[in-house]
Amino acid sequence: MSRTDRFLKACRRQPVDVSPVWFMRQAGRYQPEYRQLRERYSLLEICRQPELCVQVTRLPVEQLGVDAAILFSDISLPIGAMGREFDIQEHVGPVLAHPVRSRQDVESLHRFEPEEALPYVFESIRGLKRELPVPLIGFAGAPFTLASYIIEGGPSRDYLRTKQMMWSEPSLWQDLMDTLADVTIRYLQSQIAAGVDAVQLFDSWVGSLSPDDYRVFVLPTMRRIMDALEPFDVPLIYFGVTTGELLPIWPETGATVIGVDWRVRLEDAATRVGPQVALQGNLDPALLFAPWEVIEARTKSILDQGLNHSGFIFNLGHGVHRLTDASKLQRLTEFVHSYSEQRLKEQGVRV
Known about the structure:
Blueprint: H1 3-11, H2 32-38, H3 43-47, H4 50-64, E1 69-70, H5 77-81, E2 86-89, E3 93-96, H6 103-107, H7 114-117, H8 119-131, E4 136-141, H9 143-152, H10 160-168, H11 170-194, E5 198-202, H12 211-217, H13 219-229, E6 236-239, E7 257-259, H14 266-273, E8 278-283, H15 292-306, E9 312-316, H16 326-346
Parallel strand pairs: 1-4, 4-5, 5-6, 6-7, 7-8, 8-9
Antiparallel strand pairs: 2-3
Helix pairs in contact: 4-8, 9-11, 10-11, 11-13, 15-16
């Protein structure tokens, strides 16, 4: 089986020869080549120059041997296209000068045509599809996470203003979520039309909600997004951190792959989501700073658990840390492939 096939087959819970592997933030700050580019260009400038975006996206595929590429971009790009100025501050994230706090603010947000507002994103996708030897993952920020940025004005520890709007002004909250859902649907549909093979929705901060609040204030929006994307027949990956208590609900969104962070044992995650979705995860990114024998033992444990589930993609439980040694990622990729091949043969899996 070629590298072209195994990631998409695992997403669809079909037999594979080895466990496919890719890493969130596999293109970025831990790479010397990327750091050299950042001496000349900002993150947003790289996103907006397709030749640079293609170069950065391809690099980990060539260096690490991973089974999928993820488009180098940022979840905040649609915020600017909606008419809200923002900046990405180093080690902070998206920061808005004028947060969205009132009905007038919500009504001022533009629904936009992605190809017109963000043409460089789609030029990058088309360029990558001409060059990549593996599937390309597109992505977007999920509405709750985007809402938290635009309401708080940037990253937050407690999401007080976000929750205040959600609980105190539920109709305004729903209007905001509807707008963000419309934007997310069109943005991902356009990415799929341009050629991406799968999409991931990053709901990085939705783990701040209780299951009851998630079910009332977020689930209907996520279900609407997945329903709109389902006819395109590409894997739909849903990921967030500290979301262990939300996992039993997540299959109801319509996602085909559930990303799991390192705080939940993979076998527990499998029990919570059931057999109808594939799993992705979930090595703690900090473990890449441990001795190799520790990394290997923990990776074996994750693979032993994941390969008992119908459909499994190896990944980290969050993004690659900027101080990570690239050679460890390469060695980890090789080990995942070799160990999972052995385990699948022992299980009698036929491809």
